């Protein structure tokens, strides 16, 4: 199913309708690439521009996988949080890795805009919002990102977040003004068009069934042809299967689903003023406005392949929970795709053995990272750029097979459950604080009117006996300055 949709609003562009060419004759090339998603096509474009002969072998069609069915948010970073990255490889290497991810983001921007891809629907900015009142944690992340990792970020206070997003679900936010959005299908087909123009040959309906990576010229078998190449780049994500099953098993496949609403008119802008992407810090919801007044929303995930249509009402309910003021939002389209998660949260980039390369495992943040990996691999093969070695500490680790999927599902459920509970608690605390402030204001006002400046009444700390109720008539106001029930001033 991966990458299918119901009534796709964005699925009828001309590029997607192009006739597909299957590889039906034997071929010799410099570089053979397995998979025509974002990773494979970025390798193809860069390597073709550097002068290599390229064949891309795609089992279905260009952008069939997650690469044609995502939310289009392009921003730096990896699945592994930046503090964990520093712990794992040290500050210097973490900085270099982060800089590489920024190069990936810049590459997407240049490719999408300078190449003037038609209908790319570019929009600026992304906002990461917190489900809990976590101001301190946010400030420390801001400092790390801006001073140590040279990334343009702004901290938004709760009021600012809520003036842009009318919900009490979100607290503080980190704004990435340099992040941006693109249309997923337009971009992947635009990339394929550029790669073809640079000389790469893309064969669709051409599944790779086996690979023999030994020898200087490596061999690939497809159902209707054989191919020989000096280098093979595996960009099949979780779909790679038979050609290198052990590699596929280092990824935990997670299917993520998203919906696009019917046009919502002015009410959408009244509730969501922010025009970039919004994602919560627990990685549960991600949304943005598309086509002026439609809402695009990604949320549910499974560790098995399901029909996206099944999730229409779940997404509808989720939108209503976060933005009750929107009322019931009619869904026009639902789509989904499989992302490949690695055990360590970092992508798989590098050379597995001489001439056999991998660029995969980009998870939920695959636009910038797949571009980065594509550039690194192409430049390493053709220029000897060795920076992919920065990924060496992140080895291929078995993701646990079917048991890993069950565990992944349970962990996902638990994360969502604990995030929801933390959110409820944060909102409860916020309401309690507000009530306390209102109570104090009322008390102060009452005291002002009574001509006294009594401090607010406090409950005794737990475990301490409550003061006895006064039996006698209350003392004169002047005698209560040290607190009700406390000693009098004389
Ligand atoms: C709903 C959703 C929203 C997302 N939103 C964002 C977002 O806003 N920002 C972001 O950065 N990322 C996002 N992502 C993640 C991003 O889409 C992926 O990380 C990225 O597209 C992965 O690209 P890829 O090239 O590695 O894999 P894929 O797109 O899966 O491409 C792999 C290709 O290889 C082919 N293939 C596999 N095996 C073989 C074989 N044996 N022979 C021939 N062909 C083969 C497959 O058919 C497929 O076309 C989202 C993902 C989803 C599902």
Secondary-structure map:
Elements: H1 14-17, E1 27-34, H2 38-49, E2 54-57, E3 73-74, H3 82-89, H4 91-114, E4 123-129, H5 135-148, E5 154-156, H6 158-164, E6 173-181, H7 184-197, E7 201-203, E8 210-212, E9 218-222, E10 225-234, H8 245-248, E11 252-261, H9 266-271, E12 277-280, E13 286-290, E14 294-302, H10 312-322, E15 331-341, E16 348-353, E17 356-360, H11 366-383, H12 401-449
Helix pairs in contact: 2-7, 2-11, 3-4, 4-11
The structure holds flavin-adenine dinucleotide.
Flavin-adenine dinucleotide (FAD) is lined by residues 34-40, 57-60, 64-67, 69-73, 207-208, 235-237, 239-241, 243, 256, 258, 298, 336-337, 339, 360, 362-367, 370.
Short description:
35% of the residues lie in helices and 21% in strands. It is α/β, with parallel strands linked by helices and 490 residues long.
Note down, in words, how this protein is organized:
The chain is α/β, with parallel strands linked by helices. It folds into two domains: 1-120 and 182-251 and 344-399, FAD/NAD(P)-binding domain; 123-180 and 253-341 and 402-448, D-Amino Acid Oxidase, Chain A, domain 2, CATH 3.30.9.10. Helix content is 35%, strand content 21%. The protein has helices at residues 14-17, 38-49, 82-89, 91-114, 135-148, 158-164, 184-197, 245-248, 266-271, 312-322, 366-383, 401-449; strands at 27-34, 54-57, 73-74, 123-129, 154-156, 173-181, 201-203, 210-212, 218-222, 225-234, 252-261, 277-280, 286-290, 294-302, 331-341, 348-353, 356-360. The strands form two sheets. Strands 3, 4, 5, 6, 11, 12, 13, 14 and 15 form a nine-stranded mixed beta sheet that branches. Strands 1, 2, 7, 8, 9, 10, 16 and 17 form an eight-stranded mixed beta sheet that branches. α2 links the parallel β1 and β2 (54-57). α2 (38-49) runs parallel beside α11 (366-383) and α4 (91-114) crosses α11 (366-383). Flavin-adenine dinucleotide binds at residues 34-40, 57-60, 64-67, 69-73, 207-208, 235-237, 239-241, 243, 256, 258, 298, 336-337, 339, 360, 362-367, 370.
């Amino acid at each position: 199913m991966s990458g299918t949709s119901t009534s796709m609003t964005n699925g009828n562009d001309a590029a997607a309708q192009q006739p597909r060419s299957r590889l039906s004759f034997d071929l010799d090339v410099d570089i053979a690439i397995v998979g025509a998603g974002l990773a494979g096509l970025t390798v193809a474009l860069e390597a073709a521009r550097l002068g290599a002969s390229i064949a891309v072998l795609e089992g279905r069609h260009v952008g069939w996988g997650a690469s044609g069915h995502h939310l289009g948010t392009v921003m730096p970073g990896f699945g592994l949080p930046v503090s964990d990255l520093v712990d794992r490889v040290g500050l210097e290497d973490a900085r270099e890795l982060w800089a590489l991810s920024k190069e990936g983001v810049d590459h997407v921007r240049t490719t999408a805009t300078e190449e003037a891809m038609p209908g790319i629907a570019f929009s600026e900015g992304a906002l990461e919002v917190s489900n809990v009142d976590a101001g301190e944690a946010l400030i420390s992340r801001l400092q790390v990102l801006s001073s140590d990792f040279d990334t343009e970020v702004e901290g938004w206070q709760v009021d600012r977040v809520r003036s842009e997003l009318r919900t009490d679900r979100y607290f503080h936010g980190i704004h990435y003004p340099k992040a941006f959005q693109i249309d997923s299908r337009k971009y992947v087909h635009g990339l394929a068009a550029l790669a073809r123009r640079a000389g790469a040959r893309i064969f669709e309906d051409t599944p790779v069934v086996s690979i023999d990576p030994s020898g200087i010229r490596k061999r690939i078998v497809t159902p209707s042809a054989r191919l020989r190449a000096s280098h093979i780049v595996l960009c099949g994500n979780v779909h790679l299967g038979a050609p290198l099953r052990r590699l596929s098993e280092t990824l935990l496949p997670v299917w993520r689903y998203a919906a696009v609403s019917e046009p919502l008119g002015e009410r959408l802008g009244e509730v969501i003023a922010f025009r970039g992407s919004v994602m919560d810090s627990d990685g549960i919801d991600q949304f943005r406005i598309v086509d002026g007044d439609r809402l695009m929303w990604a949320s549910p995930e499974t560790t098995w392949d399901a029909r996206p249509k099944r999730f229409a009402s779940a997404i509808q309910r989720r939108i209503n929970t976060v933005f009750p003021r929107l009322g019931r939002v009619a869904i026009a389209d639902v789509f989904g795709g499989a992302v490949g998660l690695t055990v360590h949260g970092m992508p798989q980039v590098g050379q597995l053995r001489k001439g056999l390369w991998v660029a995969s495992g980009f998870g939920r943040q695959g636009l910038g990272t797949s571009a980065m990996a594509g550039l690194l691999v192409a430049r390493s093969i053709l220029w000897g750029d060795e920076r992919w070695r920065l990924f060496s500490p992140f080895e291929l680790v078995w993701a646990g097979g079917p048991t890993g999927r069950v565990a992944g599902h349970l962990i996902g459920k638990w994360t969502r459950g604990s995030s929801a509970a933390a959110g409820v608690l944060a909102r409860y605390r916020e309401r309690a604080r507000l009530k306390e402030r209102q109570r104090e204001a009322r008390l102060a006002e009452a005291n002002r009117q009574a001509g006294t400046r009594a401090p607010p009444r406090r409950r005794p700390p737990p475990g301490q006996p409550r003061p006895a109720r006064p039996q006698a008539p209350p003392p004169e106001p002047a005698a209560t300055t040290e607190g009700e029930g406390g000693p009098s001033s004389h």
